[in-house]
Amino acid sequence: MVAYIEALILYLVLFFPGAAGQVPVGEIVPFSAAGELVRIVLYNIPSLALIWYLLLKSKSLKSWGIGPPGRKDLLPGLLALPALILIGFIIAVVSPYLGGVPVPEIAPPSGIPAWIILAFSCVSTGYLEESFFRFYLLSKRENFGLGASRTVLLSALLFSLCHLYEGPWGFLNAVLSGIVLAFVFLRYRSFHGIALAHGLYNIFVYVLGAL
């Protein structure tokens, strides 16, 4: 019960408020380097610190099987990134024919410093979301009394609820992406591989928007 309460509080405080959306639906909002920098410093980094503080209270990094990024993370990353891009591409192609709805958009950054801030934001967001939705939930599944398959579905559902503001297709994209990332993590036990793939996918979306 304690494990459930901790996970629920973390989710409700750190992630669920984003389900309401951050920008107006159907509008393109200019990218703000200053605003993104503030979000990194005041949200991404403290949230990462909190999640890992709670994880490290019970086990060391070595016991959790976490080390610096290395060669073992290369294959999982190379599997996860194309899979995320393929899911996003298929949904982008199919959704207009099946009743696509407007989604909030943020314009690409302008200038090298803004792109650097964006890249750091995307990677830190990838690490933050993978820390909770994949590493935290899947590594603590025994504490929840759940098997791997049920925890994968729970992780994907909670992850997708945070993307409700993107509409039904964004929700579906998050569900499928969450399942893929969870299975890659369970198969290869590579946290850095899926976190970097997640961050690079987010950067890829912005690059496409700038073309």
Oligomer: single chain
Tally of individual domains? 1
The biggest sheet, with number of strands, parallel, antiparallel or mixed sense and barrel status, is: 2 strands, parallel
**Strand percentage, roughly?**
under 5%
Secondary structure category: mainly alpha
CA-based gyration radius: 17 Å
Distance between the termini: 49 Å
What is the overall silhouette? globular
Write out the strand line-up for the largest beta sheet, numbering strands in chain order. Answer: 1-2
Give start-end ranges of low-pLDDT stretches: none
Number of helices: 9
Helix content: over 70%
**Secondary-structure element pattern, one letter each:** HEHHHEHHHHH
Average per-residue pLDDT, rounded, comes to: 88
Number of strands: 2
Question: What does this 3D model show about the protein?
Answer:
The protein contains 9 helices and 2 strands; from the N terminus they run H-E-H-H-H-E-H-H-H-H-H. The chain has one domain (2-16, 30-59, 73-210). The protein is mostly helical and 211 residues long. The chain has a two-stranded parallel ribbon. It is globular. The protein has helices spanning 2-14, 33-58, 61-64, 74-94, 112-139, 141-144, 148-161, 167-188, 191-210; strands at 28-29, 105-106. Helix 4 (74-94) runs antiparallel to helix 8 and helix 7 (148-161) packs antiparallel against helix 8 (167-188). 72% of the residues lie in helices and 2% in strands. The model has no long low-confidence stretch (mean pLDDT 88).
